[in-house]
Amino acid sequence: MGNVGGVGDPDSRVAVTDVSRATTLVLLAGTVLFVLVQVWAASVPLTYDEPWYLDSVPLVDEHGLITKEFLRSLPGPVGPLFTWVHWLLHPLTGGAVPWVRMVNPVLFVLASVLTAAALKASSRREHFVSAAALIAIPMTWPCTGMALTEIPSMFFYAAHLYAFFLSWRQAETKSTGWLAAVASGVFLGLSVLGRQPVLLTLGAVGIVGVLVPRMRWPSGIVCGVTLLMCVPVFIVWGGLVPPQGMTDKVVKGFAPVHSLLAAAYCGLVMLILSPQRNWGDLRLLLGLMVGGVVVNLAFGFGAAVPMDTTVRSVVPASFMWVVERGFFGGLIGLAMVVVVVFLTEMFQRRRDVVFVFAALALLSQIAAAAAVKHQFSSRYLYPVAPLFLVLADSYPCTRWTPVRYGLGILLGAVSLVSYYLVAK
User: Fold this and answer.
1) Which of 131, 219, 193, 197 is nearest to 361 (CA)?
2) How far apart are CA 248 and CA 108, in angstroms?
3) Are the CB atoms for 230 and 156 separated by under 8 Å?
4) What is the C-alpha separation between 424 and 420, in angstroms, rounded?
5) Cis peptide leading into 98, omega within 30 of 0?
6) pLDDT digit string (tens) for 61-103?
7) Residue-wise DSSP of 82-110
8) Quick one: how far is CA 332 from the chain centroid?
9) Can you tell me the distance from the alpha carbon of 286 to that of 292, in angstroms, rounded to the nearest whole number?
């Protein structure tokens, strides 16, 4: 892993090896724990949003795979990718537990491999161990362990990143570089058709074309192919979401506070993966978070609950307002620091265009959260989860890395189990 001691120091190399081994063991333990939870939950009936999304699968047989009627009949605000994937695999899964829940774990493993390939193509420090750290992101667990919509989009986003970085490396060879750019656009288009906010990644792709002269044509190709795939669907819908999802509650207005919450959750993920980044004076960070808690407890500007299902099962209803206001206030304080940190780091590392690209793409998703007016969930950030690894891999591991990863795994496991317990 990254150096945690002096260059060329034998003791440093031993320390790094120990950290690598401990990190690998923690990630393997997390994988085993995930499998055990899935085995335990094999008899748990479909719950939460699972049956609602899976009910859209028969629409393909009724209307066709890519017809206007099918696209306009989708029941909610997300695109058709989830429905397509589960329709293709229905002969194997039967649309029933436990097999229907096996789709996302398989796609997750494939996405991890693609993320490792993307890290290698972008010349980041690590490859497979870093990509495996996806399982330490708490949102991974409910997104992967249930038949929800984020993982198919994330799979194609990881494929897009690999193809985009490959086109970057091969840009001088037009036939290879441009072919990779076309593939990148196709994959990004499919990811957008799973989760439409991912479309804002095109802004970061365009910036790469501006900053790296040899990437002008490849970046343009990625943007053009992505739009060719998505715009016809948006025209059929008459907007960015299917007609049945175009309620006033969903599409009218903005919720800026959701962007602040998204920024805060990005900060929490980066604290797990790479807390070595320049967070500034720790006292200022803690002061802003404590100040946010105190102010929001007093005035109640907003409310949020981490791992909502779990917390509500253990906290008495009469005290929930304290948890909701307190957590929301702390998140807003963290969010302000996160935005400043990302912008500062992009300026300081402006010569590292890969870092700038990943940071801009992640910030675009933070901004996009404001357009999801009806509610906020940390899961909405997950389709671009590979970006966290691209950013985190710019920092060396430390002796605390296995502990941080273990904490992320534990939080994710508790969150997933809580969903299953509600179903039971």
Assistant:
1) 197
2) 34
3) no
4) 6
5) yes
6) 999 999 999 999 998 889 999 999 999 999 999 999 999 999 9
7) HHHHHHHHHHHHTT-TTGGGGHHHHHHHH
8) 20
9) 10
Tokens representing 244?
């049945």
pLDDT of residue 14 exceeding 50, the answer is: no
Output the six-digit token pair for 268: 């929490």
- Give the span between the Cα atoms of 332 and 338, in whole angstroms: 10
Burial of 235 (0-12, 13-18, 19+ CB in 10 A): exposed
pLDDT band of residue 8 (cuts 50, 70, 90) is: very low
Question: Nearest-5° angle of CA 183, CA 241, CA 188?
Answer: 10
Residue 358: name the closest of 382, 391, 394 by CA.
391
Integer Rg of the chain from CA = 21
CB 132 within 8 A of CB 400: no
Q: Exposed e or buried b for every residue in 79-112, given b needs 16+ CB within 10 A?
A: bbbbbbbbbebbeebebebeebbbbbeebbeebb
User: How many angstroms separate the CA atoms of 157 and 385, rounded?
Assistant: 9
Q: Which amino acid is at 405?
A: Y
Token couple for 390: 């691209």
